[in-house]
Write a structure and sequence with these properties.
Shape: globular
Distance between the termini: 66 Å
Oligomer: single chain
Helix content: under 10%
Number of helices: 4
Structural class: mainly beta
Amino acid sequence: MSNSSRMRVRLLTGIAALALPLAAQAETPAAAAIADPAASAPDAAEPQGITEVVVTATRRETNLQKTPIAISVIDPVIIKDRHIQSLLDLGDGAIPSLRVATFEARQSALTIGIRGIVPFDQNQTARDTGVGVYVDGVYLGRSQGLNAALFDVARIEVLRGPQGTLFGRNTEGGALSIVTAAPTGQFGGTLTAGYGNYGAYTGQFHVNMPEFANILLKFDGVAQHQDATVSNPLPGSYGWNYYNRVGGRATALWKPAPGLSVTVAYDQAKDENTPFYSQLVNYNPNKYPVATLAQLAANKGKAPSGTIAPLPSLVVVAGDRRMTRADIGVPQQLSTDRTHGVSSTVKWEVAPSIELRSITAWRGVDTDQWDNSGGAHRTVFAPNGKFSRYSLSWMTQRQFSQEFQAVGSIPQLDYAAGLYYFQEHAEESAATPSTNQWNADGTAYTILPPLVSGTITSDNQGWAVGSRFLQRASKATAHSYAAFAQATFTPEAFDIFHLTVGGRYTKDKRDGTLFTVVNNKANFKFLFDRSRFDPMVTAAVDASDTVHLYAKYATGYRAGGANDRSQTFASFGPEVVKSYEVGSKMDLFDRHVRLNLAGYIMDRTGTQIDFDNVDTVTTSPTFNLHTEETRNAPGKSKIRGVEADLTVNPVDGLTLTGSYAYTYTDVPATANPFLNNALTKVFVVFTPRNAASASLDYELPVAIGEAKARFHLDGNYSDAMYSFQNEATKTDKSFIVNGRLALADLPLNAAGTKVTISLWTRNLFDETHIYRRSAANAKTLGDYANFNPPRTIGLEGSIKL
């Protein structure tokens, strides 16, 4: 046996020994404390304590504690208590092993990772995510549009670890499954409105109509707005960290016959936003001699070798301070994501032992990106030089998916099997003009015209449509075919043991063309055509009615593709994860304590590493050009982790929770194409070694009907972490506290109308930390960084009909 194999055996044995007496992996404790709307009520004769939660991670409705998968569940109560309006709000660490961050500084494209599977740059036409995001079983193919407002959510299931068998490709780190509330068939609804600082307001409605002719209808609408938290000195331009989200959803459920249902849903949303502000946090960290203006003039605007360009007097070096007003005014328009989709879900219970299902969906997203987040903080000064890189992108994506499932049970066997097809087409073009220009000594600047005439070059380009010097343009098409099956066998003579075996065969085909490079026509093509099989084996034991243990082996797969930021549309291969996990789930003390623990080892081959370079030399013919190359790392990347969750319900109305995730990652040194293919140490981004979350919830009745008062407080900690794959620079550690006070279910009239009034806050103590930091310009300027949002606070009221 090899040394690595012995280490693996020892680690798994140790984790198993720890897991057996303590218990298990399950949902985030805060979620465990609140019953899911779909959960069956506990028997009146049984102790109450922590209630059960129903999940659909195995394509069946199962009790979460008896489901041998590491799952976190976020329910509507948690969404309200933490004031979660979009997926980006989960970036504070509510679930320690789930990481959500912006790509670059943009709210319009999210990076989502689980258990150290966190891609660096996934928002391109010809590559995929490492964590799949689903809405009602429909996979969302792009990062763009993921930060749209959440509609009426019944729960968010966070499946941790590879889910390649039932959820397919691009779920090597896990899956984020959003389940919306279904129509009830009874008239009722909720109207909510709220106001907050930074000009924030929110409004939403959820209305169910009475059942008519076996048809149930439900309508949802939402609006969310916040003004900028960093103001822009340029009149007529937006500041930074602004958003305005609106959307609607209509759902119809038809039950034409017993055992047969057809659900059709349509949604449309628009997310207008600006990026987070990029700040210069230090200048000349290497202490080079500062060049004089005369030296710059003699050297064609560049600082002589061994020196650094001077810093204009107008530029503010922020240090560890989050700026509230930019020092340089720059043009900043709203980025806009428009998403839409229609889906049809058919369920037919053919017999008590089998239900046939069909999920058909068409979806699309259109993005206009306007990112001018850096001002002079990311550009080296040159006399009369241009600065402030405006990153512009237009992207359109359309997808179609079809899934057939057969789900059922026969004696001693539960099963799910199906067929899947996915098709996608995406196109994108990008430009990076400068919007500002210095005077000769950096004491003043002017705004360049957005519209230019004559021949458009890299030196005179504007940012208006028709004046852009396109750095790149590409298109790509993907087709994916899959067949899967999974079954759980429980021997009649030994019914405390459950063996689950599953597998998925996937055939992926993707092709594309990079047809514009540096504003010239091009014809670089790539083709990816690969098939693979992802197996899964889980052995589970019910040690008692409240103690459930499991051991699991599974694989995950992220498809290969091509990098459209490359000058040649350079392709790269897939990455594959093999995961070994043990865990247990335990309810103690008459279900008043839930203790969960799991440990895992993941080995990843073919890790996709992005090396990027931005030309910041103002006199260069490729000034502002962002070039990126993707390479598959050699050998194995190691990911090791332990996750622990605790929920305590010591007395009626009081719930205490704690969650912790330890994640170790190590990626082999990889050839860097920008350093003559020298082997370069690379890192996993947005993955802290230690992360933790805790919360306190207290509820007590008020002597007014069924009204109650609720108090919520949560704290979320994260170690410092890397934010660029090929930079050793780390972010800050962080500790964010959120809170909410609510007077809920106040009776308004005899008809049963109830009112809830709440006061909420995010980042209660206005903690400041850097969540993204780069030292790429350390030798020519300094480090730049993006800070977390400041404290927000608001008052909200809702009426339940």
